[in-house]
Design brief:
21% strand; five-stranded antiparallel beta sheet
Length: 647
């Protein structure tokens, strides 16, 4: 009995484990099916959203670039000159200008000027080619007069007649025709046009039309290895599809069988069970075609997801059936600990990633400097939405004060595969300035090839503003003496390198002590502020005005010779003498000494020279300009004080 009991107990446990195992397998498969369905829908939706974002960015960029070309061409000085004179020279200049615009925009293969009757006046054209590589490199040409065509009977010309003068026209995307025949190989074409207004009569003189090669745009819109994508117009004709057999069904002859297939596909797209997503292109391609992009997961993609899930399910079933349950329990317990620790790490990483995303500006570009990634911190700091900058050049953030020379070392480093650290002077979408201390490093793929760049920044705007305040005289708002010395050093280095001279003017307010003694220091401060503003607003934008000390001012004039610098000083002297100071003090004048840097000078020698000239100006009666030229030339002015003495 004992042996039987042991045996039955064994079988009871065995049967119990088998039943338990079967239940586990059944539950596992049910959960796998649920998660497969849920995860697959999420993956498919992510692919759809990615494709729609890609469609929007690509369409806005490509069409926007072509539209800008047409508007610039229609409103250029070259076309105004041609319409005004109709001379051969003006026409040749306009042809060259249009040729340059076409070459600058690879998406445009034809740029034409039509007169009001539909006749081609100028035609810049890039021939089609059966070989895509040759087509990309084929040269634009200006069509000879005998090649110019009459487009008055074309549909788009008829539509142009109804266009207002300040409106841009978009045609439907069709297949380009030359001399009445569809081009081979096929060249899908989007025409963008703008009326041309005569500067003489103010009336419409014709139309500027760009033929944009839509092949690349359509290729981007339907290019996906995971989705079936179809673009149709409002009449149900298929413009472009992942199945190229259906492409351009409005313009190409199709067999009855294919037409039936297109009709069935149209029905599936319009009356789907929710698996088809649609995106209206009207806001991106502003014509009356009513283009709609339909996207759904391809059968291959669904099959791949299913196969991967089933493979995982089979592996889990085999593991459950083969492993002993006690061992499985222990393993599960061990894995649970590991998973918990991993989850804690993931949560920790998420926390720090969230902090980085919120507070550390990060920008990612391709090798050409086009933005492909922008985090929240950069978006908040710059005022741009992420979707506004993706696809734009990184220079979208660049402040107007920056010049190309500021980035020479940056690109030298990056092209040599070396990281770069430095400061960027930027502006927000609202036009406000901000600074970033940035570390830019090459982004390499697994093969070690540079595929782009990643910039990690730190906001140093407050620091830069503080530095700027430390460089400015608080009372007059001019640069202070410390900043003035730095500018002089920079000008000295630049002059030594380029061989160009620069001048300095030291100006001193005459009898300023008497102003303070007579009217008080508050009145004296008002005089200094007025003199500072007179100097600031009467010099060039490239000049620097510095409060050098007390009632003394320094003007630094880059790239000026002595004679011109003296004229600047004389202009400033006259402006001060004639200025109606609003306080009690009257008769305010300045004396000035002028000197120019020569290759053998030093800063101290230059300033000493100017200071010596200032001293001579005061010795000679004040309210005058003295320089090394003074001993060779007659006085250039008669001051108010001189006139009083003579009377």
């Amino acid at each position: 009995m004992t042996s039987i009991f042991k045996g039955s107990t064994f079988y009871k446990y065995l049967i119990s484990f088998v039943i338990f195992g079967v239940l586990i397998v059944a539950l596992t498969n049910a959960l796998n099916y649920y998660h497969l369905n849920h995860i697959s829908k999420g993956i498919i939706k992510d692919q759809i959203d990615f494709q729609f974002d890609r469609v929007e960015n690509a369409t806005r960029t490509l069409i926007g670039s072509a539209e800008l070309t047409v508007v610039n061409a229609a409103q250029s000085d070259f076309i105004d000159s041609y319409l005004t004179t109709k001379s051969p020279d003006a026409k040749e200049n306009l042809q060259r200008y249009l040729l340059g615009l076409a070459r600058a925009n690879a998406g445009i293969f034809q740029l034409r000027l039509l007169d009001v009757n539909g006749n081609e006046v100028i035609d810049v054209y890039k021939p089609n080619s059966a070989n895509s590589a040759n087509s990309a490199n084929s040269a634009y040409r200006i069509e000879k007069p005998e090649q110019l065509q009459d487009k008055s009977d074309s549909r788009y010309f008829a539509e142009l007649q109804t266009l207002s003068d300040d409106t841009t026209y978009y045609s439907s995307i069709n297949l380009n025709k030359e001399f009445g025949e569809i081009e081979r190989p096929l060249r899908p074409t989007l025409r963008i046009a703008r009326p041309v207004i005569s500067p003489v009569t103010g009336n419409r003189a014709g139309y500027m039309i760009a033929n944009m090669n839509a092949s690349y745009l359509l290729g981007i819109l339907v290019n996906s290895d995971k989705l079936d994508i179809t673009i149709t117009d409002k009449d149900g004709f298929i413009l472009k599809s992942t199945n190229s057999e259906y492409d351009f069904s409005r313009y190409l002859n199709k067999s009855p069988t294919v037409q039936t297939e297109i009709a069935l596909l149209r029905e599936q797209l319009l009356y789907s069970d929710g698996s088809v997503f649609q995106y209206d292109l009207d806001n991106l391609i502003k014509n009356d075609s009513g283009l709609v992009l339909y996207a759904r997961a391809s059968q291959n993609f669904i099959s791949r997801l299913t196969a991967e899930a089933l493979e995982g399910a089979v592996q889990s079933i085999i593991a459950i059936l083969l492993l002993a349950f006690p061992v499985a329990f222990l393993i599960a317990k061990s894995l649970s600990k590991t998973a918990n620790a991993l989850q804690e790490n993931i949560e920790e990483n998420k926390k720090y990633s969230s902090i980085i995303d919120q507070y550390i500006p990060i920008l990612e570009t391709n090798k050409e400097g086009i933005i492909i990634g922008c985090n929240d911190a950069m978006s908040v700091l710059s005022g741009y939405r992420r979707r506004d900058v993706i696809g734009a050049p990184a220079s979208i953030f660049q402040h107007d004060a920056c010049v190309p020379a500021d980035f020479t070392q940056l690109w030298t480093n990056l092209k040599n595969g070396i990281s770069w650290k430095g400061e960027f002077h930027n502006k927000t979408a609202q036009g406000e300035e901000f600074w970033l201390q940035t570390h830019i490093m090459p982004n390499k793929n697994d093969a070690g090839k540079v595929i782009g760049y990643i910039g990690i920044g730190a906001d140093i705007t407050d620091k830069k503003l503080l530095e700027r305040r430390s460089e400015v005289d608080s009372m007059t708002g001019l640069f202070n003496r410390l900043k003035g010395n730095h500018i002089l050093e920079q000008q000295l280095d630049n002059a030594s390198y380029t061989g160009k001279s620069f001048g300095v003017i030291i100006l001193d307010v005459d009898h300023f002590k008497q102003v303070n003694d007579t009217y008080g220091h508050l009145e004296g401060d008002l005089v200094l502020k007025d003199v500072a503003n007179i100097l600031k607003y009467n010099v060039r934008s490239t000049d620097y005005v510095v409060r050098w000390g007390g009632e003394e001012f320094l003007v630094i004039c880059p790239n000026l010779d002595l004679a011109t610098c003296v004229k600047v000083a004389e202009k400033l002297r006259v402006q001060v003498e004639s200025f109606p100071f609003e306080g009690q003090a009257t008769g305010i004048t300045v004396s000035a000494g002028v000197a120019v840097f020569t290759g053998a000078s030093t800063i101290n020698a230059l300033l000493a020279n100017a200071d010596s000239c200032l001293y001579q100006a005061k010795e000679q009666g004040r309210n005058r300009v003295v320089s090394a030229l003074s001993k060779y030339t007659a006085e250039t002015h008669t001051s108010a004080s001189d006139m009083q003495k003579s009377s």
